[in-house]
Amino acid sequence: MKFWDWNQIKAEEVTSSQWKKSLDAENLEVSMVELLEGARTNAQTLTTEQVILVLQGALRVQVRNEEVTVRASQMLAIPPYAEYSALALKTTSFVSVRPPAVGSDMGVSGSHAEGGFREDPKVHYDPDQYLWAV
């Protein structure tokens, strides 16, 4: 068993309007993020599923070509290899939970882990079907 206290974890300033506290559990990466009203996150694509739980505020998230507003006590699951970005409609705090990255997630628009053929979302991910080959 492991125990953490968010009050004891130092916040990292990502930008002048975004702060993040992160921890790595055995099989999960957990981050607590705060965005000031009007702050945007860079578009990113991760190799793993990510769940966002908004604690306070409102976050407009664009996943691929869909947009949803996530408010306090609401959660959003972002599938692997889906490009997404977010805009804080109010000052927003949220928790992000995901398994450890496969390879090395780049976190840059249109990028994903550099691991060769196995990591290529165009080959392995079809948003309409999870079975890509027979």
User: Span from first to last CA?
Assistant: 41 Å
The spatial strand order of the largest sheet comes to 1-2-3-9-4-7
Poorly predicted residue ranges = 106-126, 129-134
Backbone CA Rg: 15 Å
CATH fold node name of the domain at 18-100: Jelly Rolls
Instruction: Estimate percent helicity.
Output: under 10%
Itemize the secondary structure elements and their pairings.
Layout: E1 12-15, E2 18-24, E3 29-35, E4 50-56, E5 58-63, E6 66-71, E7 75-78, E8 84-88, E9 92-98, H1 121-124
Antiparallel strand pairs: 1-2, 2-3, 3-9, 4-7, 4-9, 5-6, 5-8
Could you write a compact summary of the structure shown?
This protein is an all-beta fold and 134 residues long. It is built from one helix and nine strands, in the order βββββββββα.
Report on the architecture of this protein:
This protein has one helix spanning 121-124; strands at residues 12-15, 18-24, 29-35, 50-56, 58-63, 66-71, 75-78, 84-88, 92-98. The strands form two sheets. It has a six-stranded antiparallel β-sheet with strand order 1-2-3-9-4-7, with no helix packed on it. The radius of gyration is 15 Å and the shape is globular. 16% of the residues are buried. The chain has a domain at 18-100: Jelly Rolls. The protein has one helix and nine strands. With 134 residues, it is an all-beta fold.
